[in-house]
Amino acid sequence: MIADVAFDAPVDHPFSYRVPEGWVLAPGQRVLAPLRGAPRVGVVVALREGPAEALKPLAGLVDAGPLLSSSALDLARWIAAESLTSLGSTVLALLPPPAAARGSGPSATAGARISRAPELAGGRATDPAPEAERADVAHGATPSLLVGPSRDARLLALLAQTDQPALILTADVESAGRWAQRLERVGPVVRLDSSVADAERAAAWTALPTRGPRFAVGTRSAMLAPLPPGAMLALVDEQDPAHRPPGHPRMHAREVALERAARDGLRAVFTAATPSAEMWWRGERGDVRVAAAPPGPWPAVTVADTRGIARREALTPPLARAIRETLAAGRRVFLIVSRLSSALGCDECGMILKCPECAIALAYSPAGRTLGCRLCGTAAALPGTCPGCGGRRLMPFGWGAERVEHAVRRRFARARIARYDPDAAAGRRGQGQREAALAADVVVGSRGALRLFGPASLGLAGFVSPDQMLGLPDFRAAERTFALLWAAAERVRPDGAVIVQSQNPTHYALEAVARQDLAAFYGTELKFRAELGYPPIRRLAIVTVDAPLAAADRAATAVVAALGGAPGLTVYAPTPDRRNRARRIVVKGGPDLPRALRDGLRDLRAPPRGAPGRGIIDVEVDPLEWPF
DNA sequence: AGCACGCCGACT
DNA sequence: GTCGGCGTGCTC
Q1: Does residue A439 have a pLDDT over 80?
Q2: Which of A622, A432, A437 minimizes the C-alpha distance to A540?
Q3: Distance measured from the CA of protein residue A609 to the C1' of nucleotide B9, in angstroms
Q4: Straight-line distance from CA A607 to C1' C8, in Å?
Q5: In strand B, which positions have an atom below 7 A from any protein CB?
């Protein structure tokens, strides 16, 4: 017997090993296998008969049985193909950490002999009832997206009503903890995220179909956990970028959840305060049912026009007045700042200099006094005057947390003011920062500081300069600003206020938040995306070529040439990174973009023997962050 | 990914 | 004369 084993390595093909006599193995099971001398953890992706004498034997077992059904393994193949990740890296990233690896030798063999594969739902080998599965697909409903007020309560009610087991996936461990607590009042819960000990986590993996807990809660890493037929799959806060954590596979949990639900006939439910444009678009096409609740109480949202005044003063009179009144009422204030951007704007009319082709902000390099488009690579000369109004004051934006804190301190000397940055607070020295922020009257922070506040807990949220965010050279800039503002508004009491200072006071993202109108925002946003061929209408990928200095341009040119001929692809000119070593090439395509990239780059990634090095080619499909 | 092999610069 | 930098190639 031969086992084909895939490893966590950027190698497309599996490696073949001899299965020692008497071992019981199944695809989807982790094993130890010698690779370049040392035993490494891999996953069995296929078993076959054949001449095995020349092959090295497997060294041991990691799991007593397969952790993936054949349908889960097929789903992993799909994920790998979509994200251009190797199958081994995909699978091993989406399995719970090994409880305890078994070494080679008699004990391993004995362990293998007595091991029995757990019964996995949907597994071809263990699945007793394909008819039942088909019936499930038949009654597998269109996925739902819960938006609007009391989403959590509505999801909870749905989970409680259906009487079916469910896998609940959250964006982070904190949220997983909250959901586990809530669900414990409904039925037994197991947790699949990293907050529980490895052994417990491993036991939870197969518990849902076999031992009858009602709910399993986890993060994306629990996505392939076995589920019984008819189970529900819930993805909380589908728009959260944390659903696409760093590392492999580079794919958003939303996309995997939709695919899994369709394949396994599961009922899928998503929630979002502000859905991703991807999800809203599916709603418009009827692929997802958008379940909106009637608008709930909403704070008064005011957009304060800062054209011509914001450079000198962080707080406009309306915002300063609102802070004073909120503090007098004994309520809390949150001032939202965003990280400094590299865009250039007109101080007089508020216009942001954008690429005429791509409609994203041109990146301003103060050192070279140059402007460049990070999508198409076009360089532009620095204009002397604003192309919009002829004004002479073109300046980079800039209201960082520190400057804002200082400005508030000057005006409100007696208030307790704290800056909060979750990254800084995570360190040992930052422990006091969180407590200070929780006790403060005024908190200054960016998106991450929202976690300090519960729903309707603030008297005032003030967005000092959303223009910085709106001006980021990223086609998702409006979506992100909209999401942040909406999330802030949800944390303000209905009798409180939201004040947005902007040089673009009529921007559709700001107006949509003021009117509590999701549809208004996505209507405009999707029109913009469609006109310029951005996701979700078309797909994007970033090909990065990292080559020795002299070869970088040649390697990038080779990539452009290799992809240029493919039908349906738009390939942009390579742009150098800051260190002028790597070259980035943006590629637009259709639904089959991953396959087109794989086919187009195949020859470059596997150069013929003796050919000059082509450098390291990295492909990121459907990037969330613009890495410029 | 890791890890070994291979060919060019500053040291005991 | 070596030690070591990373660029290159391979792993059943």
Answers
A1: yes
A2: A622
A3: 29
A4: 12
A5: 1-3
DSSP A312: T
Q: What percent of chain A has pLDDT over 70?
A: 88
Closest nucleotide relative to residue A613's CA, C1' based: C8
A160 CB and strand C closer than 7 A: no
A48 CB closer than 7 A to any strand C atom:
no
Q: What is the pLDDT of residue A64?
A: 93
Total residues found in chain A within this entry:
628
Nucleotides of C under 7 A from a protein CB: 7-12
Whose structure tokens read 């909209």? A482
The nucleotide whose C1' lies nearest the CA of A33 is C12
Q: Is the pLDDT of residue A606 over 60?
A: no
CB A189 within 8 A of CB A214: yes
Number of helices (H), then strands (E), belonging to chain A: the values are 20, 28
Give the list of residues 6+ apart from residue A552 with CB closer than 8 angstroms, or none.
Answer: A545, A546, A576, A580, A581, A582, A583, A615
Q: Is A555 within 8 Å of A605 (Cβ atoms)?
A: no
A611 CA: nearest nucleotide by C1': C8
A412 touches strand C (CB under 7 A): no
Contact predicate A95/A30, CB 8 Å:
yes
* DSSP structural state of residue A582: E
State the residue for tokens 């379940």.
Answer: A291
Give A372-439 as a DSSP string: E-TTT--EEPPPSS-TTT--S-EEE----HHHHHHHHHHH-TTS-EEEE-HHHHHSSTTHHHHHHHHH
| Angstrom distance (rounded) from CA A28 to CA A350 | 56
The answer to whether the C-beta of A36 is closer than 7 A to strand B is yes
Checking if the pLDDT of A128 tops 60, the result is: no
- Using alpha carbons, list the distances in angstroms from residue A449 to A159, A334, A484, A488, A555: 30, 9, 11, 10, 42
Measured CA distances, A264 to A70, A81, A134, A156 (Å): 11, 19, 9, 22
Tens digit of each residue's pLDDT (9 = 90 or more) over A465-498? 898 889 888 999 999 999 999 999 999 999 999 9
| Over residues A563-584, mean pLDDT | 83
The reported pTM is 0.89
**A547: nt with nearest C1' to CA:** C7
Does nucleic acid strand C have an atom less than 7 angstroms from the CB of A387?
A: no
How many Å does it take to go from CA A562 to C1' B9? 37
CA–CA dist A588, A416 (Å, integer): 49
Distance, CA of A491 to CA of A332 (rounded, Å): 11
Give the residue nearest to nucleotide C9 (CA to C1'): A609
pLDDT, tens only, A387-421: 888 888 887 766 778 788 989 999 999 999 999 98
CA of A84 to C1' of B9 (A): 39
